[in-house]
Amino acid sequence: MSALQKLQEKIEQWKRDHESLKAQNADLKSQLAGAAGAKEDKERLNRELEAKAILCQTHEETVATLQRELREKDEEIEKIIAQVETLLA
Question: What angle do CA 70, 73, 76 make, to 5 degrees?
C-alpha cells in the first residue's frame, strides 16, 4: 500500500469520525435542550405548588376562624335559650 493510499484511508476515516462526532454533538445538544426544558417545567411546578400551599394555608385559617365564630354563636344561642326558659318558667 502506497503512502498516498494510506493517507487517503486516514482522510476517509477522519471524515467518518467527523460525521460521527457531528451526529453525537447534535444528539447531545438535543438532550441538553430537553434537560433545560425539564428544569423549567420543574421550576414552574414548584412555583405552582408553593402558590397552592399558600392558598391551602389561607383556607385552613378561614375554616378555623369560621369554626371559632360558630362555637361563639352556639354559646350565644345556648344563653338565649336559657334566658327564654327562665322567662317561661
Answer: 155
